[in-house]
UniProtKB/TrEMBL annotation:
Organism of origin: Aegilops tauschii subsp. strangulata
GO cellular component, one term: plasma membrane
EC number: 2.7.11.1
PROSITE patterns assigned to the protein according to its UniProt record, in alphabetical order: PROTEIN_KINASE_DOM (PS50011), PROTEIN_KINASE_ST (PS00108)
UniProt keyword terms in alphabetical order: ATP-binding, Glycoprotein, Kinase, Membrane, Nucleotide-binding, Phosphoprotein, Serine/threonine-protein kinase, Signal, Transferase, Transmembrane, Transmembrane helix
Protein name: non-specific serine/threonine protein kinase
SMART domains documented for this protein: S_TKc
Amino acid sequence: MSPSSLRYFGIGLKNGMYSVVLQFAEIFFPDDETWKSVGKRIFNIYIQGDLKETDFDIKKQTNGKSYTVIQRQYTVEVMNNFIDIHLFWAGKGTCCIPEQGFYGPSISALSVSSYGSNGEGDSGSQRNSTISRTGLVVGVVVCVAVLGFLAFAGAFVWRQKRRRLEVEMEELFTIVGRPNIFSYGEIKSATDSFSLSNILGRGGYGPVYKGKLLDGRIVAVKQLSSTSHQGKKEFMTEIATISAVQHRNLVKLHGCCIDSKTPLLVYEYLEQGSLDQAIFGKTDLNLDWRTRFEICVGIARGLAYLHEESSMRIVHRDIKASNVLLDADLNPKISDFGLARHYKDSMTHLNTGVAGTLGYLAPEYAMMGHLTEKADVF
């Protein structure tokens, strides 16, 4: 059920004046921190769209006593054979559900009875009483049916999301060198709610944000956009690959986040950005020939480690200037392992679908799908 709104409808009522009695009670007032922070029963009361009570607080009205009934009576006019009773959270009550339980607006009973023309209760009119009760019953049944459907749909969506997260967590736990798992709240706080001022750059996969973790570490957060060519398979490949290798010329992965709408990767922050920005962008870097030579040697060392020295042989498949990052001392580090492929020592090559960036593909790989480590060197 909605934690912020509860609505009752009475249908088929005879037009005229009615007495509406609302009865509120709370079964139990816990004294834990969850209730104090998000378990409040504070709401506005509307009848026929008119505000009758502002910030109605069950606990305050009962002086904090459980099982204590509070009644409110109102006189309202029915003009279109219809009555609407609405309990609405207005910013001071429950806004979320941290765990399973009962929160938000609460009502224990209500009654609607018609008035005669002289303003007093018309107890002699059996027809009006029958219509009133019938309309109330229909309204309550409709309300319960709608709320029941919403509760079922919400529970189904929640279970599906939880099941997906459990599967993805199991996949992550099977990865060699299991990565750290960050919560979405941690990453959101680190990037100042993904502020535009923290964007380091954008690629085909999505934006990269600068962030600061609670322990003081400065990180780069790679957010995969919904239109990215990098899907779940590439996301898991990147995590598995970079978690299994460690080298001074490979970017370091701090962890990932999977409980957000889009996957997030958390890398070490490299102050000087990408190599293509250093060469072609508007920067103050002075890349003389000696510096460029050292950068090339560093990239070669990183590739040699991937191809020959690591516990598994890896072909990157997308080596280009934008996938080489520079630290404060202009040491290069290879990044973006979403397209990487593993192969065994006994294999001379892989026959696979072509992937990578046009203009950077080796001819034999681009034309025939014949993949070896030499494709990275090209």
